[in-house]
Design goal:
Chain A is α/β, with parallel strands linked by helices. Helix content of chain A is 32%, strand content 16%. The chains are: A alpha/beta (484), B mainly alpha (773). At the A-B interface, α1, α2, α8, α9 and β16 of A face α1, α15, α23, β7 and α26 of B.
Chain lengths: 484, 773
């Protein structure tokens, strides 16, 4: 009989199986059998079978991904190219472009005049990393972060490129990175979702974000990202109606549970037992989430570090601070999206505004985590979906120009979670057009994130419609050079 | 103390199993055959397919050691790398390298190799050994051979079956020592039938009529009543919307509006008119190519234009045009043929006998559409449909397209439809690695030979493709649709992997029944209503849903159907139940989608700022109370409550929704304003009806749960009502009833109103309410 149940469980989804589990244990501690709880005990990993997860000892327990949607220019941030200033206005040599496909926006452009950064760069930290003057706060933490200047991707338009970064495929309804992590590792806490999403908008040209970026694809929807918002309901429908007290809700839930118990007795359907528990979980979330999302109790020193915007709900700074709090409370994957980095024109002024909105809080997050001793086990990522061209799009002058999409090279940074601090990794040619050393493909990047979490990207698979899918599709290898 | 240890121990054990369960999902069900004489199709092939074919299967590029195990002649041949040895020697496992290599403990020789992360179980190894011993007989994959006529199985309990379905179901039950459940009680049965056929709760007059009708025809009469209601077409249209990935926005990036809803009106109409499945699909695939193509037939082809269309400036035109072609081929494959053709996009299929070339031959049917990849970026009403398109005029609506619910508006109503290039045929190519610009050899329209070769007599266009689909020798079309409908009425298909009838898909739980239904469906003119009626008239369908401990233990997933399945209704129907039972429901059919209450900021936070969908403008008045299936779907920010209840995001063709049970669902039913508003309005209505509070609570319960409450249930609910009356303050009560835009009834005592509203809202939160029981 027990063997039957075990064998049968192999065919079950986690949810259905849990239903049966709660059934078998009767009324004992039902509340603690909720899905996330099962993953909350640190010692439990030891009891896992050899096929279990994580695949090996993790360096990072969780991730905070500060996605800069729209693609910030590497040439005005972390990839210093004095040559472009020297060759200002000169035609991009065909030998450099090498037949690279262009977007429809500049493909018909007759001339491709190179343009250097309007903003100056300086060197910082032990590694003497070049950082532009647009990012003064990030410049101060270069010894804590690893700048990768050799990222490259396959897509040249926003939608497919962001989708590629987040799901491993340009098209298709695949699970997002946070969903894969939730699927592989579960949640570390019992009152919050494993995967949370925070949105903000800058002052620059935006390209939208899409719910498929935090969708769970073919995975169970418990793994989908739960969007948190700064104002009103931090999670959809979390707040009870006005005029309903906590005691009122408690009373209602007690009545509801006794009524649901009656049908459970009649039908014996384990889903009913699960339903009762989900209402209890909802009740607990109603208390736990407002506590976590309340930033008003943060000390002045923290507010100062993140900047005054962090008290304005819905700003990047507020989201960065909220990300730290969620992470601290055991959320596995906090995904931020900040829109506005698509500078096809007026790049110098627009990008400066964008940078001003995110620079201080991004650096503050790294410092804050470090001060709390959390940086070692929290992987922080900052970057966009592709880079920008070294030639100007449309009319240009030294002070005013635009840059089109460029998939062949761009820069991101990572910090904590077992990534080497103070490292500048990879190199592009003097034109800032092609990678000449240590290229990192999007799938390599994804494989590395999973690796830091103790997951083998080739083994974290899900069989759907006959095929074994993984985040990294059919390629990718861990970037060993950036691992501490 | 003991109990505590038990809990901890169980937790530790369970953890392991759960992880295995998560990671190993999608495994095959055990065949009922013994291990002594395993059959190829049901016992062996699933193992070979899952564990061996990736390297020793149909994909020529990835084939290792030149060995392929999916074809008998190849498997029996001398090994290319070791001509003295053979992979399989029928009758002699000990001389068969296959058996030797899977059973060895030498890791250098072991198959599958360690780096594949695949492993055979002891039982699988024994099965393969015994199969080779018995002669290693290969069979063609069951789903690629036409359904065979099946005699009705004999059963012991001859009094039970009401129609043929029951013979097949009962036979399997009896073979497994199971007895069918008795028929469900009348109240439960009526609710089930009503939800299944209309997506709505039955009315009290319907409940009363059915309860008092003791004649044997009573049930059949209700079936006919529901089948002839307009709501039947809406209910059936819902799953077709998922297959057809219907939405109200273009789907990429700026994600602006599209006016594709007249196509949805047509689908509802088609189901209500009971168009045969053959006509239904033929018009959608090739309505424009029919000799007598009128506007209705052309409108139907909107099916193949529901895919996402980019409006992102700067894309490479051809990249997206190819994407649309691919999407159509995938939708046809997954939704109508139950095969995973998309696997052959970049290489030969690794498991099924479909070559990459065949994938592009199938795509070629959709390659000649007179369309660009990027027609325009976001703009005004001229961008609401993309070429090719038709305009639907008021005259059309008056004369031919009478089923279209066109609101009075100055805008031209345009719909994207299919239309091929007239002057020339666009060449189609095999695309190397699936890359849009890597043209390989040129291909002509064609179909996978393993299913049914494309006859030379047929035109090489979508009309020919439709004829091929409905060729009686096509092994998939009828089976796949019958299975899809079965899934709609039993919560899971006879083949559980609705979109994959291939070698990696699950095997049918009742293969003979599937064949019988498919043949019966074809013989009776592909009549959909008849098929539905056949299913709901069966004794199998009418069983009670009570799950005894014994049945839960022996058949926890209810594969053998010895009880009625019990599951939460589709997202859209959760809303319909709430609106119908409260009396708020606007029963208007079709027309443009509407925008219900939605928490603020969802569209605004995700939009690029461009396009007419950059801000959410909620509707008002009667429009607020329309059925869930008409909720506006903006793909990049789909309706939140629908998503919470597992609705499709309509990104791609979807044939089966997951069904989760989460705390977010609890929050949504507790606090979604539409549920609170319905509770408030229904409470007011009941209080106005005078009568006793007991009578009012009982009526609320009947309207919502569709049965009379038990004494125990009444006691709990009345206790809650009376407590509320005593403890609610006037201030809180006033605040609580202030929800929703529906006119408030100020004449009522506000404390009684709030107390009754809490009771109604609690009934909406009952598990049984949103469950098909």
């Amino acid at each position: 009989m027990e063997k039957d149940i075990i064998e049968h469980s192999l065919n079950q989804s986690r949810r259905r199986f849990l239903s049966k589990l709660s059934l078998g244990l009767g009324s004992v501690a039902l509340g603690s059998l909720l899905i996330p709880d099962l993953f909350s005990s640190p010692g439990a990993a030891d009891a896992m079978p050899t096929t279990g997860l994580p695949h090996f000892a993790p360096k990072a327990k969780r991730v905070i991904y500060l996605f800069q949607s729209g693609a910030p220019s590497q040439l005005e941030s972390f990839d210093y190219k004095p040559k472009l200033r020297e060759m200002m206005g000169q035609e991009l040599p065909d030998s450099v472009r090498g037949g690279q496909r262009l977007t429809g926006m500049t493909a018909s452009q007759k001339s491709f005049p190179m343009v250097g950064s309007a903003v100056d760069f300086k060197q910082y930290g032990k590694a003497q990393a070049w950082v532009s003057d647009m990012f003064p706060y990030t410049a101060k933490v270069v010894d804590d972060i690893c700048i990768i200047r050799s990222m490259h991707t396959e897509a040249i338009n926003h939608d497919p490129a962001i989708t590629f970064f987040e799901t491993g495929a340009q098209q298709g309804n695949r699970p997002s990175m946070g969903s894969w992590v939730s699927y592989g590792l579960g949640s570390e806490n019992k009152n919050l979702p494993a995967f949370c999403v925070l949105l903000s908008k800058g002052r620059g040209n935006g390209q939208g974000v899409y719910s498929k970026l935090w969708g769970s694809g073919f995975l169970d929807s418990i793994h989908q990202g739960v969007k948190f918002s700064g104002g009103g309901d931090p999670v959809l429908y979390l707040n009870d109606m006005k005029g309903m007290s906590r005691q009122g809700r408690r009373q209602m839930l007690d009545k509801l549970a006794s009524l649901n118990q009656i049908s459970y007795k009649e039908f014996g359907d384990p889903e009913i037992a699960t339903k009762i528990q989900q209402y209890e979980m909802a009740y607990r979330m109603q208390t736990a989430i407002p506590e976590v999302t309340d930033l008003s109790k943060e000390p002045d020193s923290i507010i100062k570090m993140y900047g005054p915007d962090c008290l304005v709900p819905g700003t990047f700074a507020a989201n960065a601070l909220l990300a730290r709090k969620l992470s601290e409370n055991g959320v596995r994957f906090v995904q931020l999206y900040h829109q506005g980095w698509d500078q096809h024109d007026t790049l110098p002024t627009e990008m400066a505004k964008q940078a001003m909105d995110v620079d201080q809080a991004s650096a503050a997050l790294v410092t804050d985590l470090k001060q709390r001793g959390m940086l070692d086990e929290t992987l922080v990522i900052w970057g966009g979906e592709f880079g920008r061209t070294n030639y100007s799009q449309g009319q240009f002058s030294k002070e005013n120009y635009g840059r089109d999409h460029h998939p062949r090279c761009f820069s991101i940074w990572m910090a904590g979670g077992g990534i080497k601090p103070g490292l500048v990794y990879g190199e592009t040619d003097e034109f800032g057009y092609n990678i000449i050393k240590d290229p990192v493909h999007v799938h390599d990047f994804q494989a590395t994130i999973l690796n830091q979490l103790g997951l083998d990207h080739e083994k974290l698979i899900y069989k759907h419609l006959g095929r074994r899918y993984r985040l990294t599709d059919v390629s990718g290898s861990v970037v060993k050079g950036i691992i501490a | 103390m003991n109990r505590k240890i038990l809990v901890i121990f169980s937790l530790i054990c369970m953890l392991g199993y759960i992880l295995q369960a998560c990671l190993g999902s999608g495994q095959k069900e055990h065949s009922l055959a013994g291990t002594e004489d395993p059959g190829y199709n049901f016992d062996i092939r699933p193992i070979l397919s899952d564990k061996c074919f990736a390297c020793h299967g149909p994909d020529a590029n990835k084939r290792a050691a030149g060995l392929r195990l999916d074809i008998a002649e190849e498997a029996y041949k001398a090994l290319k790398e070791n001509p003295g040895a053979f992979a399989i020697v029928p009758g002699m496992p000990d001389h068969s390298q296959v058996y030797l290599r899977i059973s060895t403990t030498d890791t250098a020789l072991m198959m599958p190799p360690a780096n594949s992360n695949l492993k055979l179980t002891e039982q699988e190894i024994t099965l393969i050994k015994n199969w080779i011993k018995k002669g290693a007989k290969y069979e063609k994959h069951w789903a690629f051979t036409p359904p065979a006529p099946r005699p009705l199985p004999a059963v012991k309990e001859t009094a039970w079956p009401r129609n043929a379905i029951d013979n097949f179901i009962l036979e399997k039950m009896e073979a497994n020592n199971l007895q069918p459940n008795p028929e469900a009680d009348k109240e439960r049965l009526l609710k089930r039938l009503s939800l299944d056929l209309t997506g709505l709760t039955p009315s009290i007059p319907q409940m009363d009529a059915f309860a008092t009708d003791k004649s044997p025809e009573g049930y059949g009469k209700m079936v006919d009543e529901f089948l002839s209601s307009k709501a039947y077409g809406e209910r059936m249209a819902l799953f077709w919307m998922d297959i057809a990935r219907f939405a109200d926005s273009h789907g990429y990036q700026d994600d602006s509006y599209r006016s594709q809803w007249p196509w949805r009106d047509w689908v509802i109409h088609a189901f209500n008119q009971n168009y045969s499945y053959k006509q239904f699909v033929t018009w959608q695939l090739a309505g424009d190519l029919l000799p007598d193509a009128g506007k209705e037939q052309i409108l139907a082809t909107g099916f193949n234009r529901n895919h996402k269309i980019t409006e992102e400036g700067g894309v490479v035109d051809e990249e997206y045009r190819v994407e649309y072609v691919t999407d159509r081929a995938n939708t046809l494959s997954k939704g109508l043929l139950g095969i995973t053709m998309e696997c052959a996009h970049c290489h030969d299929h690794k498991y099924d006998p479909f070559s990459q070339k065949e994938h592009y031959q199938l795509s070629a049917f959709f390659n000649n559409v007179d369309e660009p990849g990027l027609e325009s970026v976001v703009g005004g009403p001229e961008t609401y449909a993309k070429r090719p398109l038709i305009e639907i005029t008021d005259a059309d609506v008056k004369n031919i397209l009478t089923f279209i619910n066109k609101p009075a508006s100055d805008n031209r109503l345009i719909v994207s439809v299919m239309g091929d290039r007239k002057d020339s045929v666009r060449k189609a190519y095999l695309l190397e690695r699936g890359a849009y610009d890597a043209h390989g050899e040129e291909v002509l329209p064609g179909t996978p030979a393993a299913i049914l070769p494309f006859s030379d007599q047929l035109p090489k266009n979508r009309a020919g493709l439709s004829a091929w689909m409905f060729d009686p020798r096509n092994p998939l079309t009828a089976r796949v649709f019958v299975n899809q409908v079965w899934q709609e009425f039993f919560g899971r298909g006879i083949v559980k992997t609705t979109g994959d009838f291939g070698m990696q898909g699950e095997l049918p739980s009742h293969p003979e029944l599937l064949d019988w239904l498919a043949i019966d469906f074809m013989k009776n003119g592909w009549d959909i209503k008849r098929l539905v009626k056949q299913i709901v008239m069966s004794a199998t369908y009418r069983q009670s849903a009570v799950a005894s401990k014994e049945k839960l233990a022996t058949d926890p997933e209810n594969i053998l159907l010895s009880r009625a399945p019990r599951y939460r209704v589709a997202a859209e129907f959760t809303r319909d139940i709430v609106l119908a039972s409260s009396g708020l429901l606007n029963r208007g059919i079709g027309g443009p989608s509407f925008k219900p209450y939605q928490p603020p900021g969802l569209w605004e936070m995700t939009t690029s700022g461009r396009g007419v969908l950059n801000t959410y403008n909620q509707d008002h008045g009667d429009d607020l109370y329309r059925r869930g299936m008409y909720i506006f779907i903006k793909r990049t920010s789909p309706p939140p409550v629908m998503g919470i209840f597992d609705a499709s995001n309509r990104d791609q063709c979807e044939v089966r929704r997951l069904r989760t049970n989460t705390p977010l669902q609890a929050l949504a039913i507790m606090n979604d304003p539409v549920v609170l508003e319905a509770s408030r309005v229904l409470a007011a209505k009941l209080l106005r009806e005078k009568g006793t509070p007991e009578g009012q609570v009982e009526k609320a319960f009947r309207l919502i749960v569709c049965r009379r409450p038990t004494a125990q249930e009444m006691e709990i609910l009345m206790g809650y009502f009376n407590d509320g009356k005593k403890t609610l303050t006037r201030e809180d009560a006033k605040t609580q009833v202030d929800v929703g835009e529906y006119a408030a009834d100020k004449s009522l005592d506000v404390i009684s109103h709030a107390a009754m509203m809490q009771v109604v809202s609690t009934i909406y939160n009952l598990e049984e309410t949103l469950t098909r029981t």
